[in-house]
Amino acid sequence: MSGDAHISWPELIQFKRTFTDPVPATGRRRSRKLRSRPIMARAVREPGEAVGSWPSARGAALRGRRRSQARHLGIPGEEHLLTSTAFLELDQLPGRIASLVQDYISFEFAHVSGGPAQGGPSSAEGSATAFEQDLVTRLIDHTRSLGIELRLDTEVTGLEKRGGGYRLRLDAQGRSEAIDADLVIHGGGREPNTEAST
Hints:
Layout: H1 9-20, H2 23-33, E1 44-45, E2 52-55, E3 61-63, E4 68-70, H3 84-87, E5 97-101, H4 104-113, E6 122-126, H5 133-145, E7 149-152, E8 155-162, E9 165-172, E10 175-181, E11 183-185, E12 190-192
Parallel strand pairs: 5-6, 5-11, 6-7
Antiparallel strand pairs: 1-2, 2-3, 4-12, 8-9, 9-10
């Protein structure tokens, strides 16, 4: 089988919404059926505890197992990064997209959003050292053949809003560089959302 594969982003997102949009309503119906009540609160990490806890209406702590947020990267302008959740809500894609690549999922985002199929190149910065090197080499070569620009061994030092877009500042092994993009995707992984509110 041969040929060019093309992705229609609007059709892809429309299809995604057919099974993600009903999830909250389905969850509420399931909760009513089980006679349970959802509780909305911020998780607090307690000393020695690996999970979050929430104050309940009766005063006892409720413990949860799963909750996450985009990992804090500690770079100037981090608030301008688009999370993976927000990215998958876009109706249309702009022409220039930069992805901070930390894992295979964010690398997939670079492929879905970049290259000729979407009408313009995207750029991915990051490292793929955690994977089998032979496969990484083949993936890098194929990615570049699609018109996606890769910056390896590059550290992101900052992000600033410029007009209708953004400028991503990089340190490529001691050499300062910059990339202009219409949006920048946070692909730096997720972490537990256990910070206490003050």
